[in-house]
From TrEMBL:
NCBIfam families according to UniProt: purD
Organism superkingdom: Bacteria
Catalytic reactions of this protein: 5-phospho-beta-D-ribosylamine + glycine + ATP = N(1)-(5-phospho-beta-D-ribosyl)glycinamide + ADP + phosphate + H(+)
Lineage of producing organism: Bacteria, Bacillati, Actinomycetota, Actinomycetes, Mycobacteriales
Alphabetical GO biological process terms: 'de novo' IMP biosynthetic process; purine nucleobase biosynthetic process
Entry-linked HAMAP family: GARS
Protein name, entry field: Phosphoribosylamine--glycine ligase
Record keywords: ATP-binding, Ligase, Nucleotide-binding, Purine biosynthesis
Amino acid sequence: MLSPMRILLIGSGAREHALLRALAADPTVTEILFSPGNAGATDTPKATRLAGDPLEIAREHNPDLVVVGPEQPLVAGLADQLRDAGFAVFGPSAEAARIEGSKAFAKDVMKAAGVRTAEAQTVTNVVDIDAALDRFGPTWVVKDDGLAGGKGVVVTPDREVAHAHAEAVIAAGNPVLFESFLEGPEVSLFCLVDGETVVPLLPAQDHKRAYDNDEGPNTGGMGAYTPLPWLPADGVQRIVDEVCLPVAKEMKARGCPYSGLLYAGIAWGPEGPAVVEFNCRFGDPETQAVLALLETPLAGVLYSVATGALSEIEALRWHDGAAITVVLAAAGYPTNPAIGEEIRGVEGPEILHAGTEEVDGKIISTGGRVLNVIGTGKDLHEARENAYARIADIEMEGGFYRSDIGLAACEGRISIPDEVR
Ligand code: GLY
């Protein structure tokens, strides 16, 4: 492993703030350039915020490792450009990032790899929408085929709502994907992947709807918890064996081997784990909870992936207990978030910044998901208590959060269906 290590971290959300903290905690790391970053950088002495083009920043500062947080630059080929320029990069090539960037490509890979997923149909013309609606339902899953930050998916029992979303996606110039609805509780499993080596992190569960009891519109994610007390003991291994490994092998066989973080969004239904979606990067907000329990220094692990040495690392070590993250969102999120509100009470290691900036010594909201609060504890109950006690001390006009992150799991209300094999 390289020591000392200087890192360029690309991104600006709470996911990247969590990555920044975890990378900075690694004693081998001496400096992290955080671009464009957010106001959270000031709590990490090793961090410096930089604005500008990532490739130019890398050329000027010559980091030992570049970590790309969000999907857009990966799908656009930033990892390829950086690798071509000689840098070690944590993040897949543009070809491999199509696993998130094109839902049709992901379906094709899954079909070839024999991985369970929803039935799907792509529609590009509004005249074909009704026939697709007839084929699926009574719960319709209608997805924008391109990148939409989690907000391009509508899951609804209302045919008119499904039709309107499909029309809007096509009007915006994208194909629309209709899918059968997958039953069962959802699991987000993040795997480090380097060719055919797959190393899973702890499983987590996201809460995608804006309001309590899974009501309201889909968001980028309002909170998450880890681990999952309701998942069978062999659950993670089954997702690796039945989903992530076959996909990694298929990608390699196609000539676009995967290197980076493969996010498998799973619904665990009567037939076992089935794929809802893949993402080509760490999930947000699940990463904030997962990294809160990681004991192994992160920088060396990501460097191993970037340099093709993942198979050589020791087994990851995790802290006991549970972690949750609760998102504080701005009034109007996700459709029309109010920005420019002052936020008070955000100092401390439990806070991860997302849509924030420091202006004249004050922290101001600049986005829909403003910050995350982390709670850890000996179990999910204690982790929830700690997170909710902390978020209650934060003041922001119009800010809101879900009060039920991890609650159903805590109360034993989640179970997986009996398996039909
Ligand atoms: N947690 C949802 C996502 O990262 O896309």
